[in-house]
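Exercise 4. Each item below gives a protein and its sequence. For each, produce the structure-token representation.

Item: histidine kinase (Planococcus dechangensis).
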Amino acid sequence: MEAMMTGMINNIFFIIFPIILYQMFATAGQRNFFVSHRITMTILFSISIILCMLFPYQFLTEDYIFDLRQVPMIVGALYGGPIVSAVLFIVSAVGRIAIGGDGMYIAILNQFLLAAGVPFLAPLYRKVNRWWKAGLVFIISIVSLLFNLFAGYFFFGDPVHDLIGIWLMLMLNQGGIIILTALLIEHLQKQEYLYTSLMRHEKMETVSHFAAAVSHELRNPLQSIKGFVQLMQEYEYPRSKQLEFQQTILNEINAAENLIDDYLVYAKPAYDELKPIEVEPELLHVIKIMSPYAKARDVEFFVRTDHLPSKILGDSQKLHQALVNIIRNGIEAMPTGGKLDIELENSSQSVCVLITDEGTGMTKEEVKRLGEPYFSNKSKGTGLGLMVTYSIIHQMGGDISVDSEVGMGTKFTLEFPKLPE
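Answer:
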């Protein structure tokens, strides 16, 4: 009994392991077994058939050995179709010929009938729900074993009534395992379908947000431009007034261009060639630029650096843009003034920029949504600044994390891989 259970467990492992192995290593969103990776799954199921045949097990009596090769054959034929079924038949037939022994021709004939007949049931199999699928594979398995039972009676004179108990147990054994296999595949297929649907939904939602944000933000400058053009068409203004209107129109066009540039940077960041840059001088340059803006809002900078080499691979212009966005957000988060800490830390593996404000802070949910399009804590914000910032940091191989508490302020940590000296 112990040897039988060990052999049965081995056969079950040979059947299930290729399915799990494929699920683990196949690319998410493309795990559709015999549809997306027909050759891979055919090879895995062929290996499963061979291993089942090489490691059979005795069943209830020492005179009868059994294996579960029919399980991957039936499942492969239903999911893979005629070509896969033909390949699996050839593999099993060659293996059975190599093993030899009594019943070889009956086994090969049985495998041929499975390979030829089961693919015709595949269209029906795909249409029914998973419980009907479980019932269908069970019936196919029972019919296959009944063929072996009666073929043994006709060709070898095996007494059916003496073996009916053994064959009944075999039917239940193989039938139960093939049901579990089919249900496992259906479960994995359902999970993959849900994952693909979710990814598709998220992409459509992102496109929808982008369209809404672009439409909303471009409408303001376009309406201004339209209004000034209509005024110039309807009235005769002095030359100086016309020039003033034209300058306003140009300013609105520039604002629209900047908005579009921000979206393009997020969607497909355009960099000059990434090259080694020192973070400390770039950071100090940005602080110098932002100092007048901070002073006008009663915000004081406290800067700490260790003056150690801080070389990373990046784009200085885009790094400036990212740092300006974060520092500006920190300043604007303190409407009554305050202190903004900016610290540069070096380690053997990374360069970190820490920017901490004393502002209003954010909830955990708001922190999670930072960097999303169409999300901002500002009454007139679009979320584009941090969206672009996140994109820049990630495209330079860095990471950005945020710690915040309502009423206590916010800390941004930018971490970049450090280049070796």
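Check: The first helix runs from residue 2 to 25.
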